[in-house]
Amino acid sequence: MRSHPSSLSRRSLLGLGAAAVAGTALTACGGAAPGKSGSGSASLRLLTPIFDRADGQKLLTSLLADFKKDNPGVSVQVDYTEYGKLNEKLTTSIVGGQPYDVMLMGVGWIPPFAEKGVLADLEASKDELARLYNPRVVEPGVYDGKIYARPILLDTRMGIYRKDVFAEAGIDAPPKDLTELKEIAKELTVRKNGKLTRAGVDILSNDLRQTYLPVMWAHGADLFDGGKPVLDSDEAVDALQWMVDIIRTDKIEDYGFTQKGAVAAPLVQGRAAMMIGHNDMWRQISESAPELIAEDKVDGFMLNQQRPALFQGGTLATMSAKTSHPEQAKKLVEFLSGEKVSPQAAEQRGNIPAVLSAADSSYVKSNKLVSFAVDNLDHAFSEGGVPTWLEIREEFKPALESALLGKATPAEALKGLAGKAEAIIAKGA
Description:
This protein is of the alpha+beta class.
């Protein structure tokens, strides 16, 4: 068991990093559940990066009214934020000795906070949760064999293609693997007088790390092996080389083609035949080009090479190890991750409900990308896995860009990334 640091650094609100939560008199390593309060009444503080828009706030207010009916002595004070500010809010509250009772976090965030004793063990079994969720969905909430978080909604990254563009070229099915994807992309790329007018595949509209990771997993690579970074494995290098070839060798897409700030992605505009993108692309299409949905012109496909891979992110509910109201806080975590809230939370975000019971809902069935993700969760992979992940992930974009811009080979870029990851882990040990 690691001891907590004896002094606090504010250096990394990005990822607790070396900073973590020392000096806040947290529970011992492992975040054992706090002692039970003796009263049914409680005032809970909830921090959420979802429900932040006006429609989401209205929905959460209604849902919490239902929660209060079953827990009449409990009030919930909600602090809405966005993911870009979530870590700062969390860390500031912890450092200040006033952590939120219930905190919603992202996939990959649980090990950093659980390892520092911030989160309470929810004392749930994997078998119990497997009745509610796909096991792949449960795994991001597990650290050191304990359940610290329950899933609410998921967001995925997958292959997306224009069926009409394929049909015009006489191609009747999406690519079966990444080798075929590149060949089809070359065929569907259009340049006029050297200027790119249609990319065969768009790999730049999505966050670079979240584009690379499913390509990496599809190539058979992993992030860590027993807690040790394996970011520069041969398979990982092959995956990054695949992306580099898209940009630099085969000229399938140009840097800057995605038009930063554009309302719609190139795929929606007809300027890309395929993309690696977020399932929320369905909502963007419904708002910007609803005819593509009405005429069944867009669908998802699996990224596959050595194995099929789907990137799985999402939002999970956690409970503070320092809450004064553990019984009520745990009930709120279970409510927010349960069969009533999960489907509605997902629909207002354009995302995937975590609960299995929503798989046949009208919302899931009406959204092809969400439905595709639900059907393929057995092939989902999640980022994270080590306590220093939130710091390590910040090193991905510069490493990937260095290769895509030709400043380093894929092997050099990933060797540098692996070295930085090892240094971060060593510093946090």
